[in-house]
Description:
Elements: H1 2-18, H2 23-34, H3 39-47, H4 52-91, H5 110-124, E1 128-129, E2 135-137, H6 138-141, E3 166-168, H7 174-182, E4 187-196, E5 207-217, H8 222-237, E6 243-250, E7 253-262, E8 279-288, H9 290-296, E9 304-311, H10 312-320, H11 333-336
The structure holds phenylalanine.
Amino acid sequence: MKERLELLAKEAERAIEAAASDKDALLQLKARYLGRKGEFSGFLKELAALPAEDRKAAGEAINQAKTRLEDAIAILIGGIEGRWKEAALAKERLDVTLPGRTMPLGKRHPVMQVMEEIQEVFFGLGFDIAEGPEIELDSYNFEKLNIPKDHPAREMQDTFYVSSDVLLRTHTSPVQIRVMENKRPPVRVIAPGTVFRRDSDVTHSPMFHQVEGFMVDKGVSFANLKAVLADFLRTFFGRDTGVRFRPSFFPFTEPSAEADIRCVLCKGAGCRVCKGSGWLEILGAGMIHPEVFRSVGYDYEEYSGFAFGLGVERIAMLKYGIDDLRLLFENDLRFLKQF
Ligand code: PHE
C-alpha cells in the first residue's frame, strides 16, 4: 500500500505541476484526488483491513500526502488569483493627479444680479417686495397714476397696446396702485419687474427692467426721500459717490425730482458717457401726488409718501462699464461669462 500511495502522490504532483496556471484544471484535480469520492479516499477504506499496529502509521502517511497536495493546489490557486487581481488593478489604475471634469454651471444674468443687489439694499432698510402683472390695464398704468387718456405725458412713454384698455406696462409704477389698493399705510415696498416701451437703440431696449420703490406713512417728507435714495446710491456705488437732486416732472409725483450721481467713469471731469456734464441721471422720484392717493382711497391730509423708479439696465451698465445696452440682451456667453 505504501508504494501505491507514493505512486499516486507522484502522479498527482505531476498532474498538478502540469496544470499549475489553470485554476479550473487545479480544482478538477483537487476533486479527482482529494474529494470525498477521490482517489485517496480508497486508501482510507483499506485502513480497516490493516493490522491494528500498522493502521496509525498508514493513516498518517495518507493524511500527509493529502495535505501536501492540498497545500500545493491552494498555493497555486492563490497565486493565480493574485495575478488576476493585479492585472485588474493595473487595468483600472486611476491617475488621481488628473484635473477633474468641471460641470458647466450657469449663472444669473448680470441684469438679474444687479436687480437682486438693489433689492438687498432695500431689504436692509425694511422694505417689502411686491409684484404686478406685465400685461396691465390702462387704468393702472396711466389713469390711476394721474395720467388721463388725453394727457400729454402719455407721449413720454411709447406704449405697446394689446387693446384700447390693455397694454404692456411701460413702468413699474402701476404696482404702487395695486399695493396701496390692498394695504393701508404704513407701507414700504419695492417692486422689481420687466417693463416695455416702443424704443430701440444703443441706450433703449423695447424690454427692460425697473425697480419701483415707495413709502407711505404719517409725516413722510422729501427729506426722507433724499436720505433713503442717497443712502441707497452710496451703498450701491460707493460711500464717497456724489449725489444730487434736480427738479423734474412726473404726473404721479409732486414735487418731482431726478437724482444724479457723479460720473463713475470720469469722476466728474466730463466724458463721453456723462456727455461732459460730470453727472449721470440715475432715477426718477418724488412725493406721491394727492390725486394718486385719492385714486387708491388714501387720505392725503393724513398720509404722505415718496416714490421712485430706477432703470436696472442703466445701473448695470454704469456699474460694469458696459457701453452698449444691446450686449445685455444678445445672450453671448463670451459676454455673460465676465460677470
Ligand atoms: N415711473 C417713472 C418712469 O418710468 C419713474 C418714477 C417712479 C418717477 C416713481 C417717480 C416716481 O419714468
